[in-house]
Amino acid sequence: MAPSQRAEIPMELGFASVFLVAVFGGILALQWVLSRANWWFYEVQLGEKRFSLPPGDLGWPFIGNMWSFLRAFKSSNPDSFISTFVTRFGRTGIYKAFMFGSPSIIVTTPEACRRVLTDDEAFKPGWPSSTLELIGKKSFIGISYEEHKRLRRLTAAPVNGHEALSIYMRYIEDSVKSALDKWASMGQIEFLTELRKLTFRIIMYIFLSSESEQVMEALEREYTMLNHGVRAIGINLPGFAYHKALKARKNLVAIFQSIVNERRKQRAGSALTVKKDMMDALLDVEDENGRKLNDEEIIDVLVMYLNAGHESSGHITMWAAIFLQEHPEFFQRAKAEQEGIIKNRPPTQKGLTLKEVRQMEYLSKVIDETLRLITISFVVFREAKADVNISGYTIPEGWKVLVWFRSVHMDPEIYPDPKEFNPSRWEGYIPKAGTYLPFGAGTRTCPGNDLAKLEISIFLHYFLLNYQLERLNPGCPLRYLPHTRPTDNCLARIRKLSSPSV
């Protein structure tokens, strides 16, 4: 090799090394800039207030903390998301983050959660725009405090009132008995899927009296797709969960619009004095100025209520049945209570009464413990109307506040061995304000909570007395989004007892 050629090799290696160092340095510089972008854009503009923000990390532009959130909730340990904040920043109970496209404050302590949920002067609904697009801007989650109060006043008695619950009981009871008997003859079923169909049929009856089997199946399928997009990143591109959910929303609106049109047509010119169902109530309600709800408002209320009215009931009923079957001592105690109710009723009485349901003290503890352990809605969203001070930290005006129910319910200082199912922990125990939030708190507490607990109680009454659940894949993995469920939707057989109690 010539001397000149030997000299060129070190020079080429030198240039390559410099180039690699420059590229590596550029990557590090870009990474540093991107990691600080949200800080520059959202925190620096706060001026001196930024020094009183809670500890935390706003993550990368646009994405923020969403990848770590989704990674945790798609793993076997969803609580690792908040645990990471605790490990990095200490157990402050309040952290800054960038979630669902907005700078956010996550609150995880009972005191902070209660304050955010009950202080309507300081906080308003703050659901992500992507969620509002799916559930409806005119639904309970999107409307103002005054509008919410008016609609809640309208729907409270027809959904949760004593008279209404007494009326619904017979329909719920007949539906439950029929469903259990049918499932016992079907062999292998997806228990969760069948429960969701059952609870959907019940909420459809309450709001729309009745619809064809085809309409109910079509609506239930669309709601399944809708729910998968509620907690997803709002990417409206083919293949993404949010894109599919938007299509489901469009189909739901079209179906409900046809139902509203048909109901208006039926009512035209008729002197209707008795409200048949919630649809009639929504069509008739008017404010102090005589303004009635328009079609968009009615449809958004329907979308929200029919969704919440069957999702939570179906999932919690499944988990209560699973937990009881997995814990024979709790199963027998709950069953003995139900047998006692049957034994003490008059011989001429047919079916359950609301009074009997309210005597199910131990079963109520079973449901409360299931609601705590599963936490069907692990987070709700608020937005600060002005700068708010909580626990010595500033929540800036316009920032979202994520009330993280799951952290409260899984706090070992509040609930010893929080991952254990133990209904007996509720004996003689009255939770302090903010420590038990299955239906939220404050003026925006879930409006259908009493109806949901009634449905679950009636189902468990007949299940405990007459049936057993045999899971086919008891060790199958869980999914945590949008709700905690087995990946096989609880593939199981329902077996009728040879000597049923009723």
From TrEMBL:
Major localisation: membrane
GO molecular function, one term: iron ion binding
Signal peptide span: none
Topology of this chain in the membrane: Single-pass membrane protein
PROSITE patterns: CYTOCHROME_P450
GO biological processes: brassinosteroid biosynthetic process; brassinosteroid homeostasis; gibberellin biosynthetic process; sterol metabolic process
Pathway membership: Plant hormone biosynthesis; gibberellin biosynthesis; Hormone biosynthesis
Short name of one Pfam family: p450
Cofactor(s) this protein requires: heme
Chain segments annotated as transmembrane: 12-34
One GO CC term on file: endoplasmic reticulum
SUPFAM superfamilies in UniProt: Cytochrome P450
Compartments where located: Membrane
Record: residues binding heme: 446
Superkingdom of the source species: Eukaryota
Entry keyword set: Heme, Iron, Membrane, Metal-binding, Monooxygenase, Oxidoreductase, Transmembrane, Transmembrane helix
Function comment: Catalyzes three successive oxidations of ent-kaurenoic acid giving gibberellin 12 (GA12), a key step in gibberellins (GAs) biosynthesis. GAs, which are involved many processes, including stem elongation, play a central role in plant development.
Family: Belongs to the cytochrome P450 family.
Protein name: Ent-kaurenoic acid oxidase
